[in-house]
Amino acid sequence: MVVQDKGGSGTSSILLLVAGAKGAVGSTVAVVAATLKKKPEEVLPWLTTSESLPGALGKGSLKFAGWDSKEINLTDAIIKHGVLPKEQWLPLQDELSAMEVLQAPQGPLAEQARLLAAQIKELMAHHPDSSPVMVDLLPASASPPFAECNCLEELLAMDRAALPVDMAYAAAALSCGVPFVNFTSNPVEHPMVVQEAVQKGVPMCGRDGKTGQTFFKVVLASALKARKLRVYGWYSLNILGNEDGKNLLDPSRAASKLENKTQVLEDVLGYTVAQDPSKPSHGVHIAYYPPRGDAKEAWDVVDFWGLFGLPMSLRLNLMARDSVLAAPMVVDLAAWMVELKKLGRSGLIPELGFYFKRPLGEGSPKTFQEQLYALELLEKQCTLQGGQGDTGL
C-alpha cells in the first residue's frame, strides 16, 4: 500500500534500532556501523544496496542503538561471540562504547511496548537527523498459532505465553512511525500488527533472514527448475555452535525455523519433493556442535531426475560464517526501509523476498530469478519517484 510520506526527508543517516543488540549478529552489525564511520571502504563493497541504492550508505551514515537482556557490555559481547578477529574491532572501541544499548524491558507485553515506545522517542530525539529503523534480531522462540483479536491493544494484553516477545518491539516501533524488519523466524506479522503498519504509513518486512544454506538452496532449486530437472529428494543438515544453535536445541523454538527452511523449497519448485507422492523426501535438520562456533557448516544432498527419468545426484558443502553473512543484509534492509518509507510504502513489502526464507506480503517472489527481478523493479521505483534522491545520505 502507498500513503503520503509523513516526514523523515532531509535526514543525513540511518538510526538502526536493534532488538537483540548484543547477540552474535547484533554485535557484528555494531562493528559494521563503527567501521562505516572510520573506514567505509571496508564495508560498502559487501552491501547489495551499494549498487541498488547508491549514496544511501557512506561514511558515518549508520548509527547503532538497541536493547538486550545480557548484563555484559557491547565490547564484551563481541569478545564472547568470537565472530570477528580482535584487530577488526579493537580500533573501534571508542565508537562501540558510545553506542546506546538499553536493558531489555520485562513484564507484560503491553507494558514493554509502552516503555519501548518511550525509549524509541528518546533515541530519535538524540539523533534528530537520522531516519530510524527497527530490526528484530531476538532469539528464536516458541511460536503458537496467531490468536484471534480485534485490535493491536487486545493482542498485546494477551498472556505472554501466547505471543513472542518480539511483538512488543514491533508494536512500539510502529506506534512511533518506525519501519520494522523481522530478521528472525518468530512470527511477528499478526494481522493486527500489519494493519497497524498500514494505518501508520510504515513499511515492514520479513521473515527469517536468508543468509547461507537456504540462500544457496533457493539459487540451486531455481536453477534446477529452470533447467526442467525434477527434484525428488533433498536432505539438508545445518551444523552450528553459536548461541543460535544452542537455543534451537529446544524443539519448540526450532519449529518455526525448520518450517521456514522446509517450505521454501516447495515454494520455489512448485511441487512436493518426493520419489513416492505419499512419502515426501525433503528433510531439514539443525545440529548444535559447539566446536563450530559461529562458523557454521551446511550439507545438502540433492537427488533429481533428468531425461527419460534417469537419476542424478549432487552434493553441496558450505563452510560459512553465520553472522558475517547476516550483518550486511541487516544494513541493506535498513537502507531499503528508509527509502520505502520516503516513497510512502506501508505494510508488508513482498519485493524484499530476496532477503528472507519466508518472504511475506501478497505476491512475494519465490524463485531466485523472480526475487532479483522484484528488487530491480523496486530500485527503479525508488529512482523514478525520487525516494533515493531525497535521502541526503
Key features of this structure:
single chain, 393 residues, Rossmann fold, Dihydrodipicolinate Reductase, domain 2, 2 domains, four-stranded mixed β-sheet, 14 helices, 13 strands, 19% strand, disordered C terminus
Tell me the name of the CATH class of the largest domain: Alpha Beta
Rounded mean pLDDT is 90
- Secondary structure category: alpha/beta
- Overall structural domain count: 2
CATH topology of the largest domain: Rossmann fold
SSE string, helix = H, strand = E? EHHEHHHEHEHHEHEHEHHEEEEEHEH
Order of strands in the sheet with most strands: 3-2-1-4-5-6-13
Residue share in helices? 25-40%
Report the span from N to C terminus.
25 Å
| CATH arch. level architecture of the largest domain | 3-Layer(aba) Sandwich
Per DSSP, the total helix count is: 14
Cα Rg? 21 Å
Which strand-content bin applies to the residues?
Answer: 15-25%
Beta strand count: 13
Shape: globular
Task: Please tell me about this protein's structure.
With 393 residues, the chain is of the alpha/beta class. It has two domains: 13-209 and 323-390, Rossmann fold; 213-319, Dihydrodipicolinate Reductase, domain 2 (2-Layer Sandwich). It contains 14 helices and 13 strands. The strands form three sheets. The protein has a seven-stranded parallel sheet with strand order 3-2-1-4-5-6-13, sandwiched between helices. It has a four-stranded mixed sheet with strand order 10-7-11-12. It has a two-stranded antiparallel sheet with strand order 8-9. A hairpin with a 5-residue loop joins strand 11 (297-305) and strand 12 (311-319). Helix 6 (109-126) packs across helix 8 and helix 8 (166-175) packs parallel to helix 9. The longest helix is centred in the last third of the chain and has 22 residues, at 322-343. Residues 1-11 and 387-393 have low confidence and may be disordered.
